[in-house]
Design a protein that fits this description.
With 237 residues, the chain is an all-alpha fold. The chain contains eleven helices and two strands; from the N terminus they run H-H-H-H-E-E-H-H-H-H-H-H-H. The chain has a two-stranded antiparallel ribbon with strand order 1-2.
């Protein structure tokens, strides 16, 4: 009986439900990161479902995933909207990110070594290929993987989970940073990733701390400068 059921699923010609959720999630996520869907805009399940020719169920699941990442916000009895990008909260956001970068880097250096560093190097090699290809969303996702791998090496799951939340909520900030460079992030700005890898190889806690601080400061300085000068990076009003 089980074999008959599998055969039926394989020959039905219908996409797995998870595939539909992934499709809608990816499209909405791209729209939000590119600011094609503005902060505060209602995510109308019926309209989105109609656009994709789907039922509302996979759309709802996709919006739940976006909400978990901090890109959407659920409203009581009113569906969901694109999360607002609170410019005034950016200093506090960067403080939290910098603290977690430093804490996780210090632990990674303490608990790391050549084997752990090799995993980071593999992610970094892929990251540089993505940067060279000018894949903005790929840059954001692989940068996230790099820093979460540092947290995994450190071994404190609370720091890992907090950092994942911080990075998810800062995806639009990272997207604006990449946009500042016309999708072409300078390779020299990746030097602190190499310094972090070297610190993990050598178990050099102080060097890891300094590299993590400098790495966090790059995005903070550039975004803060653009906000203060109003230089037009696509920040919402």
């Amino acid at each position: 009986m089980m074999g008959d059921g599998v055969a039926k699923d394989q020959t039905s010609g219908r996409k797995p439900r998870g595939g539909n959720v992934d499709l809608v999630y990816s499209a909405l996520r791209d729209d939000i990161l590119e600011l094609r869907r503005a902060p505060g805009e209602v995510l109308d399940e019926a309209e989105i479902a109609s656009t994709f020719g789907l039922s509302r169920s996979p759309v709802r699941e996709a919006i739940v995933r976006l909400t978990a990442e901090g890109l959407a916000q659920a409203l009581k009895n009113r569906g969901a909207v694109v999360s607002r990008l609170d410019i005034e909260a950016l200093p506090a956001y960067f403080d939290a990110q910098t603290l977690l970068f430093r804490m996780t880097a210090r632990l990674a250096a303490q608990n790391g070594g050549p084997v752990a560093a090799a995993r980071l190097k593999k992610i970094q090699d892929r990251h540089e290929a993505i940067v060279a290809a000018r894949d903005a969303n790929g840059v954001i996702q692989n940068n996230r993987l790099f820093h979460l791998e540092i947290a995994l090496i450190g071994g404190n799951r609370w720091y890992h989970d907090w950092l994942a939340s911080i990075l998810d909520q800062g995806q639009r900030v990272m997207r604006l940073y990449v946009r500042l460079h016309a999708e072409n992030v300078p390779m020299d700005q990746l030097s602190y990733h190499h310094a972090l890898i070297e610190a993990v190889v050598n178990r050099d806690i102080d060097a890891a701390d300094q590299a993590a601080l400098a790495d966090a400061q790059i995005v903070r300085d550039e975004i803060s400068r653009q906000v203060s000068t109003g230089s037009g990076v696509g920040l919402p009003d």
